[in-house]
Amino acid sequence: MASAASSSSTAPGMRRIKKFPSSSVLPNNTTTDTPSPALSTNVSNTSSVARLSATSSRNNPGALLDPTQNQPILRSQSSRIRSQSQSQLDVPSTVTRAHSAKYHRKGISTAGLSTIRPITIETLLSRPPTSLPEGLKTLKNLVLTQGVPADNEGNSAVRVYIWSILLGVTPMKTKDYVTLVRRGASSSYSKIRNDTFRTLATDPLFRRKVSEASLIRLLNAFQWKMRDKGLEAQYVQGMNVIAAPFLYAAKSEVEAFSLFAAFIERECPAYVRPTMEGVHRGLKLVDQCLEIVDPKLFEHLQSKFLTAELYAFPSVLTLCACTPPLPEVLKLWDFLIAYGAHLNILCVVAQLLLMRDELLAAQSPMKLLRQFPPLESKSIINVAVSLVRRIPDNVFDALVVHARDA
């Protein structure tokens, strides 16, 4: 671990419902032959994590992971450690035999004080740190190493708060959202209605918890919000699927709207422009990154005339939200929201590497790529993190900005 940490220091730094009644729905009147070593790599790879953390800190200055520790120590805790170390100097260097037992008993009785309880997401949220950068650094590391606690259906008591913290979202007043809804149908309303009914249509968890009416209101209100800001406000395919995890995870429709708006504006504005230039840049980067990390698999797909434009468009456009199951999508999004949506490109490449043997053996790989296998978020994240250090700086820089650049 020490050597890995040493090498990482010389490597380039790595970057990042109050519910409304259904009647509120708007009216219609308006490499080598061997498998990639990435597949066996754990997220504890320090050089990858250090570079990853440096990227995410662009939006949160100082929010860097400590590459030498899995659980960075908060400032208050480090002060406690120093004070305990100093207290050892207060013990007399020479004591009489009569008092030795006394000091021994004292050492036993205070030994427990020097033990620092492991930090968890729940304890971090319940006892906010004194330093915001340190707290963000620790939160991101916990998301990566421990994961957000949730049940089998993806329900979590803390996920929405973690997303709000990482996206810098402050609570939105319900009346402000209601005002947007009451403005009626936007110019994109008919397009929205054409898409919402088929959003995650085969996912019983989503259909049971999220109504089509709430999805319509959220997307239509977002169009008004963008127009008020003077930005290009035109609904594009895929926005409905991006909105779905927010509506599923949030405790209210207003909360989901504020998270969705912040995510689109901050992480992937180029994905929702009329030309979708961010998505097309991302697809080219999928091809580039795959060629770098696994030339043999890349050449095999190229020999079948298969580029990312043909098989990875939905996964790039929706940040993998189109691939079930939904609870695994939420876990993957915990990682993307913590370290940057641009890393979804490496998550797509990771999925290709995880099905490498099947793709190489297939005479018609498109049959396998037409529908990606069910998401396994832990494996995908492990591989994606390991790929970070293998991507050249110029390609990684393009990766970081591809979803945001004009």
TrEMBL record:
Subcellular location field: Cytoplasm, Cytoskeleton
Composition skew (Polar residues), residue ranges: 21-60
Family matches, as PROSITE patterns: TBC_RABGAP (PS50086)
GO molecular function: GTPase activator activity
Chief subcellular location: cytoplasm
Renumbered residue ranges of the record's region Disordered: 1-100
Cell cycle is among the record's keywords: yes
Family of this protein: Belongs to the BUB2 family.
Protein name: TBC-domain-containing protein
